[in-house]
Amino acid sequence: MTDTTSTDTTEATTDRSESPAVDGALMSALVTEHFVLQSAAGATISESGSRASIYLASLSSCLVAIGFAGSSPKTLIVLACTLFPTVFVLGWFTLVRLIDTAIESIVAQRRIEKIRRYYAGLTRSAAEYFPLEDATTGTLGVRYRARSFLFTTATMIAVVNAVLGGATTAFIVASTAIATDELSVVIGVLCGLLFLGLAIAYQESRFRPVRPA
User: Fold this and answer.
1) Is 27 part of any domain?
2) Cα–Cα distance, 208 to 25 (Å, whole number)
3) Fewest Cβ atoms nearer than 10 Å: which of 103, 122, 140, 192?
């Protein structure tokens, strides 16, 4: 980390010494880029919250509808076999987009960090106001590691959607009377674990190129 920072600072100093006009144009461009990246990072957080809320609201509405149909077995089966799979597919769409926004945020933050390294090399006192990422505490006191993706909004939706998928499978198996209730529950649990494993494996493969070493 120290060698990289020193190299970046040296290169920045060399660029600045070439032409004041070029240096001023570069500073203006960097400030604009910094603002754009910060806006993009904020937008990804906002979109993630909105998409997660839409999915959870859809699931909640689905459960309410199922509750009202509980007095009619035929209506219950029709609604469950229609609504549950629909929300389950919506959950996968939501998961994919949440992973996209998380990766976009990571890339934006890393580009901002490069700009901060340039700021830190402007003067001798600038490093005090633009500290680099600490090896112990990380960025803003949070140290992100290789498995930090397991605690993202995408993983939260993956867990909920896996439970929904397992419950839907168990309900469909039980409603067809081809298995006992106990066997239906076992099948549902196994399918839920399978869905969760697939979601985590997909998420890990998407985060692999940008995760810390």
Assistant:
1) yes
2) 36
3) 140
